[in-house]
Each structure stands twice: as C-alpha cells, then as structure tokens.
Amino acid sequence: MKGCSVFKTTAANGRVSWRYQAEIGRGADGRPIRISASGFKLQREASDALREKLKELRAGRPVTTTATLREYLDHWLPYHTKAKPLEPTTATRYVSLAAHAMQALGSVPLKDVSTFMLDDLYVKLAEKNLGPKTIREVHGVLHVALKRAVKTKLIPFNPADGCDLPRLDQKEAVVLNPEQLAAYQAAAAGSWIDLLIRLGAAIGARRGELLALRWADIDFTTNKVRIERSLYQAKGQVGIKPTKTRQARVVSIPLSLMEYLKLHREAQEQNRSLFGPDYRTDLDLIFGDIQGQFRKPDSVSWTACDIARRAGLKGVGLHALRHTHASTLLHAGVPVANVSKRLGHRDPYTTAKIYAHALPDTDQDVAATWDKIMTETAPAKFPAQICTNSGGQTTVTQ
Q1: 178-356 and 69-151 share a CATH fold
Q2: Are 254 and 234 a contacting pair, CB within 8 Å?
Q3: Which sequence spans correspond to the domains of the chain?
Q4: CA 289 from chain center: how many Å?
Q5: Coil, strand or helix at 332
Q6: How many CB atoms lie within 10 A of CB 157?
Q7: CATH architecture for residues 178-356
Q8: What CA–CA distance (Å, rounded) separates 51 from 43?
Q9: For range 308-322, the mean pLDDT
C-alpha cells in the first residue's frame, strides 16, 4: 500500500526496535491520516503487524481522525453544498444551523462527539429560547454531516442516531376569512403591492414565485400563468432558482384579476418611458421596482406585514395568502388533487396533511352511505336478530 513503511529505530540507551507507519487517507481538514506502531523486536514482526492492520482496514474497520468537529464541518459544508447541490438560501441556512454546534462543541475531536453531548446541546439551545423546529433543523444538519463521516470511515458510528429531540407541535396555518381578506386588500389598495397581494390570494403562489413572474409567463388568451422559477435572497443578494419542487405548473387566473394585470402593465409602461434605457426590460418582471429591477423578498414581506398590521391583522404575512387560498378552496369542496396542483405540491398527500383542518367533515355522510349499502345488500327475508343470555341459556328474538 502506498505510504507504508517499516523502519528501524534506536533508543537513547542503544536498544534497537522496529516500527511501522502507514498513510490511510485524509481527514476533514485535508491533512493525511497516519497510523503507526512501534516496539517490535524484528523487522518481520513489524511487517506482519502492518499487513494485519491493513487487512483489518480493508475489511471495513473504521478509521479515526484527529480533526475537531469544527474542522470537519468547515470542510463538509462546502462539499455538501456542491454535491447535493443546495440552493443558495438552503446553503446559507445550513451554515447558520451548524454554527450552533460549532459554538458549543467545535473544539471537541470529531471521534469523541457522543450522543450525550448532542442531547446536552439541544437542551441548552432550548434554554436559550431556540424553538423546537430550529433545534430539529440543527440536529438534521449534524445527522447528515456525521452520516457522511461514518461513510468515509472517519468515525465508527453516527452519534446523532439516538438523540432525544424536542416535540414539534403542528401549528395550524394562519387563514383569513373573506372579511379579513377584503380588509387586507383594501388596506393595500393604491400601493405597489396591491396587485401582488390580490394575485397571491387568487393563485396561492409562494412569495418568491410571485416576485419572479414575467409578463411572458401570462397567457392573456387563456387567462393562465406558468410558474417555473422563484426569486431568492441570500446574504443580501437576490437571484433566480427553480420552484421548490423543481417543477413548473400552469395555473388559471380568475377573470377579475386579468383586468388588474392589464392596468398594471399600462402603468408599468409609463415607468419604462420615464427611465428609458435604464429600465430593465430584459427582466420582463411583473412585480419589479420602478426601474424594472428585482425587489428584495425580505423588503416585500416587511411591507406586506406592515399593511396587515394597519388592517388590524396581527401576525399576517404573504404566506397567509397561500394558506387562505388552499383552505378556502378545500372547505368549498374543491378536490384535494386540484388544490395540490395549484399550490405546486409534490403530491395530494402533502396538501391533505398540511390542510387537514380545512377538509369538509363528511363523516356523517360516510356513516349514512354505510347504512345504505348494508340495507341494499342485506337479505330481506332475514330480519334482525337480538341475542340475549339469561340464566346460562341463550334466547334468540326475531
């Protein structure tokens, strides 16, 4: 094996012994991982011991590393970002989540990280008022990172496998009733975000999907819009990425909003004339700023929340419009599959799980259907029988 050697050493007292050394890989920090053993009386003994060690390694016995958890995560994060690959916003989120572990356990050697240490970390994060969802996300990043360490034989097992995690209670989505939605839209009337709020409620698109819409995506003949990209913001920069499921979808727009869109386009033409060649006609954005540039998603969310507060709707933001769209349609009896398609979910099961509270309660109808089936299929000549047991004897009453 390359990097292996057996050599003689002489101690200060003149005693001669043999030693072996082998390079068996590289750690998370990029430095070579070496194993060695000494004290063999004969060269043959050192060579035999080296062969046995290499045989063990080839059989799959884990190799340890001298890297700390911080050094390993610093190496793994950029690798994982490229290998997946991760969206810029997701990669940024991974870094912030891993930072919690680095701050508390960064100096601990990777091979010494234990399940108990991770459990203790999650308890301390909870004491710092970090929410259960975020703590679970920290654990998720560590679990994937340490799984890779096991796969590359840096550690023998994944200490994140047996961790105790905080319970995550499912919160019901914020949904506006028709009166609240009307108040929200009235508060936004006349502002640049007016149409965005109306369209968000009407088609259930995500914030990034709305901000990435182009005029070319709208078919004014069929009154449909094609949603195939999303605007993201990471480290203050914005850019375009695929939708969450990486799949495009075509959604019908209510006729009432088509007129709003036409009026909006006419107003936008005035800005194009005003700024001339400085206007970003190449972006073709429906919801760009006055120069046709991308709007920052965080700024848009802040404006939407501010308008909601002024309308008396505390805790309401753009995503509430998506929830309102889905819940309203499901409550009205629109099939889950249809709603799922409009939302761009991977499958109807995802939609049903998130919006189970909005599904119509048809349990009484189900019970009535059962009775009807049993009545129609039961033989008419056999009336119901009631069995009673009295004094050890069974009596059948018809």
Answers
A1: no
A2: no
A3: 4-58, 69-151, 178-356
A4: 29
A5: coil
A6: 12
A7: Orthogonal Bundle (1.10)
A8: 12
A9: 94
Pick the CATH number of 69-151 from 3.30.9, 1.10.3470, 1.10.150, 1.20.120: 1.10.150
In this structure, the strands spanning 386-390 and 393-397 are antiparallel
Return the ∠ at Cα 170 (arms to 131 and 137), rounded to 5°: 40
pTM, to two decimals: 0.68
Q: Which two tokens stand for residue 219?
A: 């078919």
pLDDT in tens, 8-38: 888 888 888 988 888 776 655 566 777 788 8
**Structure tokens given for 89:** 């916003």
Q: Which residue has the tokens 């002024």?
A: 310
Token pair for 233 = 């913001």
The tokens describing 5, both together, are 């050697």
The residue written with tokens 């409620």 in the block is: 201
Residue 167 has pLDDT above 60, yes or no: yes
Contact criterion met (CB below 8 Å) for 143 and 158: yes
∠ CA(94), CA(98), CA(100), 5° rounding?
Answer: 130
Name residue 358's beta-bridge partners: none
